[in-house]
Design goal:
single chain, alpha/beta, Rossmann fold, six-stranded parallel sheet, three-stranded antiparallel sheet
């Protein structure tokens, strides 16, 4: 699954570079993305000097020296292996309002060509936990993290106990994620199976934030057998015109 998703990701970046002279990329983090990103960043057919990188979210109040920092994750697992020189990392140690304002200006300056995302155990997309805000047009938001989301971070080994997990995060908004021209969603593991089924088989609802992906015109979801184990038959794509407001 990781290799197939990485090959598609490489093709998407190459296509953007061919069409626009560069690829503006939003990348997800977390344990579920490790194998995918390893395969992707190892591909030397991408002109990484033409890739401009953003990331989806960061814990509020956490600086980059913390092992769970997503900025640290991005730097170690994407920037260093590829040599990307144009990147914009969310600094959780700075005042959230300042980070949100600056990141919002940068990410909306030009279209995002490719977005890599995952799905959380609670169905979240980025750190937009249920019930997610499907209407706020701001590019980034300060969001509250629910207990299921925070427990997932402990379960994945980023924190040793729940009390250590921040209660808020800076997250790219649902509306901003959907603005990406192409979305690749990479979701391995049986623990994600219920969220995947809700996102792909159920209705589009803020209670399952990742269900909003059903409305995007160019999204591909990569699942392993375990993550797909609760799915029913494929459903017809939902038109963006039917997206809840």
């Amino acid at each position: 699954m990781a290799l197939a998703a990485a090959a598609d990701g490489v093709a998407a970046l190459q296509q953007a570079i061919l069409e626009f002279g560069k690829a503006r990329l939003v990348a997800a983090t977390g344990a579920s993305q490790l194998q995918f990103l390893s395969a992707l960043t190892g591909d030397r057919s991408v002109d990484w000097s033409r890739v401009e990188l953003f990331h989806l979210d960061e814990y509020s109040g956490l600086d980059e020296t913390h092992p769970a920092s997503f900025a640290k994750y991005i730097r170690e697992r994407i920037i260093r292996p590829t040599g990307i020189s144009r990147y914009y990392l969310l600094n959780g140690a700075r005042p959230a309002d300042d980070v949100i304002a600056e990141a919002g200006k940068r990410v909306t300056a030009e279209p995002i060509h490719v977005a890599f995302v995952g799905i959380g155990e609670n169905g979240h997309l980025a750190f937009n936990d249920p019930p997610a805000d499907f209407v706020n047009p701001a590019p980034y938001l300060l969001v509250d993290l629910d207990e299921a989301c925070r427990r997932q971070q402990v379960g994945e080994g980023w924190f040793s106990e729940l009390a250590q997990v921040p209660r808020q995060a800076i997250s790219m908004s649902i509306r901003q994620i959907l603005k990406a021209r192409r979305i690749l969603c990479v979701v391995p593991d049986e623990r994600k199976a219920r969220a995947v089924a809700g996102a792909l088989d159920g209705p589009v609802t803020p209670d399952v934030p990742a269900s909003i992906l059903q409305t995007h015109p160019d999204v591909t979801v990569y699942l392993d057998e375990a993550a797909a184990s609760l799915l029913r038959q494929q459903r017809a794509p939902i038109s963006p015109d039917t997206m809840p407001t």
